[in-house]
Amino acid sequence: MDFTSDLVSGIELSKLDGGDSGTHSNSSIIGNEQSNFELLDANERQKLKLQDEKEALLRERNLLLEEIAKYKESDLVDENAGEADKETSKADEINANIRATLDSNGIALFKDILSIVKDPTSSNVRSSKYDTLPILTLQSRIQYMKKYTFPYMTLSINSGEESTESENEGSITCEFKFTRNKDTNFSIELQVNYKLSALTISDYHITNISPDLKRNIGPLLEESPPLNANLIIFSCYEFDRLYFKRLGVFDYLSSEFDYLTTSRRDPNHPELLVLRGDAIVNDHTFDVEVVVQFKIIFSSGNKVPRDPRPLSSIHVQVKKDGFQSSAENESLNYICRTVTKRSGVKSGLLEACRLVFHPL
């Protein structure tokens, strides 16, 4: 029997059946996916819509933030420019106020600065201060300067001249009085010229000075260029201090040798003290005169600028019966200098005078 055709027909039938079976399977998958898509769209449709809206809003937000940043930068530039204009205007206003105050009432301003108003908290300033910087409070600074630096000086403002705006200068007259010595009247008056723009002293002129003070500090007044006004006042103050010390030394020697015949001081020569009395040497009585010369001098020479600090020069001169010995004076002054270096001026002069009136 011939089964070929049936076999072929069976194979072809199988192919046909297999093909139909594959097609049916694919159709089932597509149907399932479509069904799943329809189900996903139904459940998540609202979420997807909200997500899209969110992304769109975020993009708009970022754009708005960028625009805000740009506006802030431009506003900051405008604000800085405005602040600069305000500060400039404020500085001009302050300068104008300062000028108006100094022009209209310069004397009152200086008097207000120089007046000492005790601050109840100023007593604790120095106890809590551990640096060498100046005290920031002006009134406290002036108070401590008056108390510790210049306790024997008073300052008064006598007159002043208002400045013109074109010149930008003003002047004021200040009188300094040195009050350490009650029997003297040391004073100096300065006309001080100052610049309003910088509030600094431009120059000064001595309008009045007491004769005794002028006679002693004369070399300093001849300086060219002139010394700083502060140094002139410092020199006068130090001269007054040494003058007072000299009075104390002379009073001490006069009291120690009050038994002598003469203890004399010449008002026209305040640097001299004369002690006179009898001294017994080798059973011979001499009429002895001791002249103590205590000078207050300023350094001389070609040194520029001249040292503003006054110096003391002490010399002892002895006469016996009207005659003096250079060798004896030189020896006596050597002893005086030696003791002075070791124990001070009073002890040095006391020892020299004792050797004259009470020789060993």
Keywords:
single chain, 360 residues, alpha+beta, 4-stranded antiparallel β-sheet, 6 helices, 8 strands, 54% helix, elongated, coiled coil
How would you sum up this structure, described in words?
By secondary structure, this protein is an alpha+beta fold. Among the domains are: 124-241; 244-357. 54% of the residues lie in helices and 23% in strands. The chain has helices spanning 4-114, 138-149, 211-221, 229-256, 326-343, 345-357; strands at residues 153-161, 169-178, 186-195, 200-209, 262-266, 269-281, 284-298, 310-320. The radius of gyration is 52 Å and the shape is elongated. The relative contact order is 0.05.
Question: Layout of SSEs?
Answer:
Blueprint: H1 4-114, H2 138-149, E1 153-161, E2 169-178, E3 186-195, E4 200-209, H3 211-221, H4 229-256, E5 262-266, E6 269-281, E7 284-298, E8 310-320, H5 326-343, H6 345-357
Antiparallel strand pairs: 1-2, 2-3, 3-4, 5-6, 6-7, 7-8
Helix pairs in contact: 3-4, 4-6, 5-6
